User: Fold these one by one.
Assistant:
Number 1:
Amino acid sequence: MSLRIVVAGATGLVGRALVANLCGAPSVDAVLVVGRRPTGLAHEKLTEKLGPAEDWPHFLEDQKLDAAVSTLGTTLRDAGSQSAFFAIDHDLVLSFARAACAAGTRQFMMVSSVGAHAAARNFYLATKGKVETGVANIGFERIDILRPGLLRGARPGRLRLGERLAIAVSPLTDIVTPAVLSRYRSIPSQIVADALAALVGALEPGQFVHHNDEMRALVVGRLTRR
């Protein structure tokens, strides 16, 4: 298998780990990153095309891609407003997905959030649910949606006190969270990245949703196959 993958959101917590993973995968022939900032990564398989989102469809033309992965996402604090957040976590993801589909990509993968639902009262979860619905209507042969709990990992920049506390106490809250609610536990960002890499090239058509336990199983299965 020789796969060509495009990734948007490669400078983030999950995206950066994913690109490094894909570059080291024997089944992956080429990794194209589209974005506005360089990743700082270097590999013979890796190509970066940087520019405004309006240029991304042009970047994907004639690429003969097998799969597209969106790890795009921000926070309300970083975005500055709900409208700015929606523009990234909804509009930009859909723009990237449409460009990938127009380029002939059969599989689309995206990182969403546990609890995502278009009708959710929480703005963050509603946005995630709406973008999932939008992607489902674009026309991909296969869609993989990953809905992790709180992501653990070394984030760039300063974290707010609440964010630092949530990450610090997550091992304790995970212990008291019953197994039936395991999808709400925290999860290392590396596992999410590894699960995405394990899903690249999956052939069965349809839409698939993966929570924490499914992601961990994907990673274990991938390691077993090596």
Number 2:
Amino acid sequence: MDKKEEKMTYTKLIWIFVIGSIAGYIFEVSFYFLKHGIFLNKQGLLYGPFKPIYGFGSVLLSLLLNFVRNKKNWIIFIYGSILGGIFEYACSLVLQYFFKTRMWTYAKMGLDINGRVYLPYLPIWGLIGLLWLKVIYPWFSRVLAKIPKKPLLVCTIIISVFFIFNSTISTIAVWRMRARTKEIPASSKLDRFLDKYYTDEYILKRIPYLRLVD
């Protein structure tokens, strides 16, 4: 890649996040179907086939692994495995202690770290990092560089606004869901709006692996 394609920009990072979120959703749905023979919606936000953890992971891998892009493949693989595990653990902590939710646990599988990271899955992060850095990212950068700047900027702004809205409404809806489990009555128009349109059934239908924790 030339210097223009290597450069990290806000636009590039946003689309890396979007692609990573969609790819993560497809991966988890496919994996569950192959394992259980059942289709299960595995999205992480209320609207759209997105798993934000994979989006953030893609951004993290792109930023950090960019420094080792010229290293040997086995070094990139190790970096990807370690960074993926650290990222997954950190996300689990943030969800539990800041948002009081938990969307996955490996506690019953063994070979786990506090139920947050499953050690046999670390090589998957390594492979994803290697594949992303050596194959997908270079192709993605070349395609993005060929798109006219103005249409790309408009689309980037639209998708950014959408994700801000999606993340915000998902967060406050879950917070209100948690309040309802504690039988805290609606005290504002926003609470009443959430109780009417974002019921527990509505939320769990879209984010079925959501678990509230203390």
Number 3:
Amino acid sequence: MAVLAKICGINSAPAMVAAVEGRAAYVGLVFYPPSPRAVTPEQAASLNAGVPDHIAKVGLFVDADDVTLQRVLDVVALDILQLHGNETPQRVAEIKKMFGVPVMKAVRIAGPDDVARAADFVAVSDRLLFDAQAPADMAGALPGGNGLAFDWQLLAEKEWPLPWMLSGGLTPDNLAQAAAVTGAVCVDVSSGVEASRGVKDPEKIARFLAVAKSL
């Protein structure tokens, strides 16, 4: 069975076309203004216009308030809300109940304690996403999309009662190894398919998706 893939941080039509033609299972749109991949709700709606229904549209938010979430959802049809900040389990549950959209909570990993902390979100999330925690001294670090990988062995032989995605530093070249070590059947990539920070490379997107399908 092929590994399902999400192309995150799409902010251009060529990138979206590459994701659709490469049969991505998910496409991600970033609604976090400090990110170089950020889009407005109007831009996101335009990018989504030609995406088939079978591809899930994911909106990435970082500690967003209700007004921000509602403004985006009023304009953009999203299938999943990806919460990539410091949201508490209570906040995740609140968002899921208030907006009625499935929620995926990102858990940033630096060590075993972070993996254990993911259990706090199992009861309130529809999905989990494991990403790398950026070092405190990393200049210009974002909540995600920093091109960093964590120790994949931390997830080896772990089982979760809900679907999950592997993220953080993935590229077409290391995807096979990452999936083999972690057992991931769904992966998320952003910086690993870029020509430069925030600029997606359609050829790299195609390569990544081809590798995912081959696994």
Number 4:
Amino acid sequence: MKKVKVAMIGVGAISGIYLENITKLFQELELIGVCDLVRERAEQAQEKYQIQKLYETMNDAFADPEVDMILNLTRPYEHYEVTKAALMAGKHVYSEKPLGASFEEGKKLVALAEEKKLMLGGAPDTFLGSGIQTCRRLIDDGYIGEPIGAAAFMICHGHETWHPDPEFYYKYGGGPMLDMGPYYVTALVNLLGGVSGVTGVTKTSFPTRTITSQPKNGTIVDVDVPTYITGTLSFDNGAIGTIFTTFDVYYKQQARFEIYGTKGTLIVPDPNTFGGPIQLLRPEDGDYKEMPLLFDYKENSRGLGLADMAKALQTGRDYRANYHLTEHVLEILTSFEKSSKKGCYLPLETHYERTLPMMNNPIHGILD
């Protein structure tokens, strides 16, 4: 079995689960090199996971003829330049979310990938996990009738109390909608289809944030992005969705994520996870029933989208976390603030048609 060879750019907080899954779970991937601006991080990853190469710069990775695909795990405001350079060097790219820090950046990357005839995929890939895929099956099979609406809420008070490097969450490319919104919007469009337009109202509740986590305890950060965002989504199928994301509110439990249909209501699991639980309410049952998970990858399977893209590279089939999805999601995420500033409904430029659902493969770690 010929493996797709991957170079990882960025070895920060999110890299740990990617390192685990690429080296131990997904059998058709081979991580052959790592690179980070903080060399020590790359050295530690290389030693722990027995990685063949440590690149001095990302351009060294892009120039490596052995590398088939670049995994971009840099910070959101760096995604554009890193992905652009990799594409210019002729490499396929899979990027952490979002595709770019603005819709304009995303459009340029998509145009470049199309010009170069290269694959461009991206996170989040949680929608490929057992939870969201089971919800899609239930909706597609008519368990809630015709979908008529959705509500998705992500409520917390920010990351400065626990994250070791939280400044970027409040800078260009950050904020709750671009940070956590991708999980919810990606799940929504995979459950209900594309979005034709949005409205939004946004604000910044606190002009500064004080970091209380280590090692930057006491540092004051200016907040440059909206941190309280409400939006309405008009889906192509006629359904209407509501989304709310905030870094301003104290909230203890997981907020709701629900899909409403003419015959029932589906409680969707946290879209930042790969598993369940899933609950279905139909009037004849009188109460919610927990539904069994019907697909593989219930555990934290980050890298699943990368593995799916690698399989597509090997076989020529389509890949599910493709740029049609990530560009459409990015336009939705960034249009709420634009709508708020203009005070009007915004029709979208992009359109999205759902890719095929996941298929169970008897061998865990090898995709269909």
